[in-house]
Amino acid sequence: MKAITLYLEQHAADILADIKTLVAAESPSDDKSAVDACGEVLQQLFQQRLNVRAEITPQQHYGNNLKFSLGGQTPQSTIIGHFDTVWNKGELTLREEEGRLYGPGILDMKAGLVQAIWAVRALQQLDLPGWQNVVFLCNSDEELGSPGSQQWIETHARGSAQVFVVEPAVAGSGALKVARKGTGRYDLTLTGLAAHAGNNPEEGASAVLEMAQQILALHALNAPERGTTVNVGVASGGSRANVVADRARLEVDTRVTSEEEAARLHAAIMQLQPHDPRVTLHISGEQGRPPMRQSAASRALFARAAHIGRQLGLTLEGASVGGGSDGNFTAALGLPTLDGLGATGAGIHARHEHIIVAEVVQRTALLAGLLSGETP
């Protein structure tokens, strides 16, 4: 590990420069042209640092997905990371203050992608094992739930000996993510009858009133004792104060720790009925990401990470978190999966999103050690 760390320390300025380059290529998930332009920058980094070209999988509505393969030997180690972000172009600026580097998507998760590139480059340049059997799966729609890349990830990750997800570490503790909740997304569209709120309100059927009742029904599905949450994150409806509302809409997020809870929630949500028979209720959505559970193989993977961490001066913990990632898909395939191997920092999806510059080399070395097959 000393040789790897020394090499990375010598190239710390280059790693940071690459992170800035990728972050500067802004890539909001719903802007295909911007995401694809960012993908081209990412391809340039892979070509420059690892001398490997992308296998491009075009997508019609989302950014193109990129696969990079090194060595071709087996067993395969798969690294997963996305390059889309939640930020519209121009919303955040790239800046460095007091040892923190701020920018759109820098923590979630462009710094992690760059660290992964340099982890493999360190092994390659030092002629150490581990880089000859690596596949990078870089997708462009993770922040949307990976609608166009889930099957692509599952296809190319299948059979992997180990999967490393370079999403950020747990904020504050730097813990790795050994388990995640499954996630779901639902839309409810309500159509009522408009009427004048003063002259003939009885002729109307309020979609907003119905929406309020559906919110209560959805909230009743929460089961915190089982780790289940149902959140109505967006509620909108109506047109004017003096009109009985004829339309309303809800956007709902669900989180579960088990497939049984996922099935319960899906059935309950899809079976919701309007309280006012004059209101039409249309429901769409699904439980998208399955829960990421820690298997015996995944526990062994974490034990290796903890061993390598100790050599680097890190005391690593394994955490179960509420957010989902593409690691949920690979874990559901039975593949040993370890998440949170990207950068450290804070502010995911927040305006103060940043990474801790001083910890970039250390976290990059951790991934390099895992890829090299370092064992206790």
TrEMBL record:
Record carries keyword Transmembrane: no
Domain Peptidase M20 dimerisation, first and last residues per copy: 178-271
Cross-referenced Gene3D superfamilies: 3.30.70.360, Zn peptidases
Name of a matching Pfam family: Peptidase_M20
UniProt keyword Hydrolase, yes or no: yes
Annotated keywords: Cobalt, Hydrolase, Metal-binding
InterPro entries listed in its UniProt record: Bact_exopeptidase_dim_dom (IPR036264), Pept_M20_glutamate_carboxypep (IPR017150), Peptidase_M20 (IPR002933), Peptidase_M20_dimer (IPR011650), Peptidase_M20A (IPR050072)
Transmembrane segments: none
Domain of life: Bacteria
Protein name: M20 family metallopeptidase
Annotated organism of origin: Pantoea eucrina
